[in-house]
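Sanity check record (used in CI):
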Amino acid sequence: MRLSGLALAAGLQLPAVLAHSSQKPLGPGLGPSLKKGSQPNIVFILTDDQDLHLQSLDYLPLIKKHLADHGTLYKRHYCTTALCCPSRVSLWTGKQAHNTNVTDVNPPYGGYPKFIRQGFNNAYLPVWLQEAGYNTYYTGKLFNAHTVENYNAPYPAGWNGSDFLLDPYTYSYLNASYQRNQNPPVNYKGQHSVDVLAEKAYGFLDDAVKESSRPFFLGLAPVAPHSNVQSFVLDGDIGDIEQAAVFSPPIPAKRHEHLFADVKIPRTPHFNPDKPSGANWVRSLHQQSQENVDFNDHFYRQRLRTLQSVDELVDGIFARLKKYNLLDNTFVFYTTDNGYHIGQHRLQPGKECGFEEDINIPLIVRGPGVPSKHVAEIVTTHIDLAPTILGLAGAPSRADFDGETIPLRRAEFEDAAVSRHEHVTVEYWGFAITEGKVFRKDEARLVLNNTYKALRIISKEYNFYYSVWCNNEHELYDIKTDPYQLHNLLHPDETTPATLLGVPFEKVTARLDSLLFVLKSCKAQTCVRPWQALHPQGNVQNLHDALHPRFDAFYLTEQRRVSYDRCELGYLLDAEGPQFETDGLVHRQGARWDEWV
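Expected output for Arylsulfatase:
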């Protein structure tokens, strides 16, 4: 039986139990002014490929009981790159992928070797937490291309205790290999990967409690509900992926394999639609056959079944936190690396797109002062998590963070409603892959021209997704009127409105393009306050301000446009087109408002 809604698909009404809270405003938070000895413990749970919009949270009663009913669900939380490794590196470093240059799951453009080569092994969250006085523990998947061959070249820094899932067995639910501390890898053939991880997680929690003189950070990264993959270690050649990996639906623990027999993928308007949607290769997809839809419904059920082990893991963690009397001084974060689509826009199971299913993902936080049964409407991203956790630890922030601290308490939410930014930077390079079956000979399992830059911008007045692909096709969705992103207003087959937000259509698109121009190469505070780069006088804080008629000539005639010189599989600057430069007053994009006026 389906539980009452936590998964907030676009346009759905909030469940009453989550939309209101009787909790009174709380006092000041645990920011950098924490006194020594008052640092909270932190548990961070990171699933793999979990959706928000396909309602997976509705089938996880223990997560609802322990987290949503006692914490805050962030309705508008986003990953910035919808692929495992780039998203995780951004999460742990607080940097956009264009600043980490880890943009793929395998070399040469990504994976653990690229993380090491970019110098992040001594500059990411667990290292900073140890410097702040924490003991740190981790079990599960860290990064892709972290393998049984390179696990010690070098060992990941920053962990007092670790037990990592390793490739090529990371996604083999019944044949996982874990590698503990500096010991050789151990294979767990025949045991379910999430159950193995659960026992390791409980052991690390016991270890953390024994070392009671220091607060702890415990990271848990089960592979569920990622598809099951039989693979060998890739050599980085993108052309090998089709031969190197066999994808199939995830495999649940035997005790869960009978559940949800009649459940199907939510039949939303964009599920296997009659007309094509999107742009580039997505718009060329054929409508799926009934055989295809039936298989994808099975794939969906397997995801829900596999997540039951995660639900039990969360229950076990809370039972132990309660036993150790730690609940009053522990923050628990629950999120995923990226979202997932199955059938929306005619897509086969997978991620790597900019649609809401892939980028708008679960984030639930419970901890001291965090409102219970609260749904936050503010915009937050994975880039914000490292600053947030460092703030809880009482550690200083870092000037090179591309994000800002996430509000956790009611007074902070009230301030954020007025002052917080309204945008998300979305970016992707390289391939898109079908993780289910291919039912047509004329549809490829691997697409290579899936490189794009995009933004989401959300307020009470407007709600847009704007993107530019590497073939220079454009997308714009007005999600207020088109919540399922079925009508690309910039595609020749669609009707372009004469006006948007009460002004001529082209004036809005010009502002969005200029904002994306800044965000696609932004660094540090420019990523948080991009309008400041366009209007240094501080008279523009958001899209509403930028739409003032006095800026029309600036945006319509003076600004360069986002474009690509060519499609590439990684972040190669000479392929990215003109860049917004922030050193001095010289901008390849064109004059800023204060120079032009």
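The two ends are 62 Å apart (CA to CA). If this sentence no longer matches the regenerated tokens, the check is flagged for review.
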